[in-house]
Amino acid sequence: MSTATIAPPADANIDHSKALSYWSDVDPDINGMLGGFPQISRVDIQGSRNFVAKLRRASKMTAGEKFARGVDCGAGIGRITLHLLSTLCTTTDIIEPIPKFISHILTSPSFAPLRASNRIGSVYTQTLESWNPPPNVKYDLVWNQWCLSHLTDVQLLEYLRRVGGALSEGGWAVVKENMSTDPEGLDIFDEKDHSVTRTDKKFRSIFTEARLEIVRTELQRGLPKALYPVRAYALQPILVEQVTT
Asked: In DSSP terms, which residues pair with 91 in a beta bridge?
């Protein structure tokens, strides 16, 4: 009789309190946010800008037309809001559970022009798994980057279902995350920050279960080979006709 045991899934190891403790000790600067690789910020932002440009062209948006409202999910110190979403959206909401990161956004001189012109919308100091989109708000662009790894698979599924219901007609949820390189095709748990790096296959399965379809996906180029591959997905709700036919 075999005594082999089946290892629990990677996300079973996530401890949210330890993850929050880890990030609470991280410096509120680009170096801290990007794990000691601040030099990747520029190529990352440019890659994201190109990705959104392709979405806009495919949707026949008018050149220079801004999205009415976006949301930066797991925003950290607002790197993506400052360098990307503020150039794309009239108003950007913020979701971030670490108070000192929120404080940076609300007090840093870099954000002063956005604050003065009311370009920063609602600010939610809470985790993504606890966030419920306000019922009277629809988002044209929901940006999730390097943050969904702190949610369990079940939490991610439930979160994406809520996000899908909060999208405006034609709006997108973008997921941009590290990809597992495990040789056996498994998710990878990181004990340092209590995160899980998922496989492309796992993401696609969760998207489908959340009734979201991938309308575009591509790998980020130009990152150091020492880092995980990074893939961006643009998601939209699956229409009822698509589900039933």
From this structure: 69
Report whether 176 contacts 142 (CB < 8 A).
no
- pLDDT at position 61 is 81
Neighbours of 22 (CB within 10 A): 17
Asked if 174 and 142 count as a contact pair (C-beta separation under 8 A), the reply is: yes
Between vectors from CA 171 to CA 234 and to CA 49, what angle results, nearest 5°? Answer: 55
CA separation for the pair 137, 179 (Å, rounded): 31
Residue type, 215: V
> What tens digit of pLDDT does each residue of 74-91 get?
999 999 999 999 999 999
